[in-house]
Amino acid sequence: MKFPLLSSAMFIVVLSTSCIQKQQVDLIITNGNIYTVNDSFQKAEAVAINNGKFVAVGTTKNINKNYKSSTKININGKTIIPGLINSYCNFYTLGLSMQKIDLTGTKSIDEVIQRINDFNKEKNSDFILGYGWNHKDWNKKELPTKKELDKIFPNTPLVLQNQDTDIILVNQATLNLAKIDKNTKVDGGKILKKQGKLTGIVIGDAKRLVQNIIPSVDLKKSTEALKDAEKYCLSVGYTTIDEAGVDQEIINLFDSLQIKDELKIRVYAMVNANEKNLNYYLKHGTFKSERLNVRSFKVFADGALGARRALLKESYSDKENYIGGLITDPDIIISTAHRIINSDFQMNTYAIGDSANAFILKTYANAIKSQTNRRWRIEHAQVISNEDLDYFTEIIPSIQPIHALTNIYSPKDRLGSERIKGAFAYKKLLEVNGRIALGTDFNDADLDPMYTFYAAVARKDRSGNPKGGFEIENGLSREETLKGMTIWAAYANFEEDEKGSIEVGKFADFIILNQNIMEIEIEEVPNIKVLNSFINGELVSKLN
Q: What number does CATH give the domain 219-542?
């Protein structure tokens, strides 16, 4: 596909600029392959940046003619796109998980210990947490014991949760702290022993004895979590993240770190819609700084399709006479919507099943009535009946393309061959609304936005399956996908006038890629690397 290049006639300059006097700016980038993602989806070659914003976008010749800077970068044809916006993620939770040891894919207890040692050299923690091991994948397919852990960590407590979260492995230091001995009794769980001695394996409800002694997350750990999550997000090209549900103390921490310039990334914060938060924020109103925007509430309708917690209109195809259920009482959802509609806040509701989506869409319609530009969102919008699609004319679908492809179950198993046609129907949703916001989620899915892009277009997982793409008729074009990760995502946040495209007057948030994401073979897109990330024209991440 050919994209129009910004010509000299289209080139925008500051009126004071003349052929005699060049304007001094902070940064000039030339000879680029720049996708502006403006209204015409035009391309440019160069930009001039001053005071954190684009002051000119156009050809290299015109930028050089009219602007000067002590910092000038010739990127030799590399591709630039606007900074990516993750429309739905659990940023803080991601950071907390990065303070734990990822043990997925280990093949033995020795490999587990090696990862613990590597982690501890960096973090030097006084209480070590890990997750994701699965002894069934090990060469020796037996439950491990604490014997090896006790040798290396006799005094530092270790709590290692397995892949399905039902089993934890701990060392003797943890057992001592939890006051667990060979005589400890517990209902609904097991504390395994071998030849009368504790093995360090704790199963089921017995886990609470250990969980009770895990240190709570303090200010220091919360700060580390946000910084760890930021480091990752900047490295893969996110310059704005939509934090999908946090409380006031974490929002305040975002703000304080940003004020001190210790957190560069921009945050669109969805406030957990519990009674305490609703009372506080509805009283005090929305909050907006250059890097933090607090103007939405996160509400839960139902749960995940894979766990059969999504509320369906008819029974699950693989579980007769079962339709799932709502997580939040419907009366509370309705009353919450009517409280929020009387404020400037947006309502963003997690809804998966067709019945849950229908209920939320109708609740929204009844609350909004004749109001315009409310931009209320449905997060996930995974299973939609044809009769409910038209509601999305005014409601923004906020979706995660990888969810259709990375689950451990087959969506078709849950929904059957007919109902699956209304699942993950991104093209249909786009046709109705005209915009669609793309994100990843951060709890259970691949985090790399290059894979998000690939999944949206090719509708395949990283292994290239299914052949031909999953329900490929609902795949998005590359242009639609890039818009969904930039300007449409900005629109979903009421921020389209300040970010989401490379245009004069907007924040200079952009990334440089090592490949042309719009023209490279689609199967190669997941391998694209982000060379540099910029926020406010400042280099905030560089590929080593």
A: 3.20.20.140
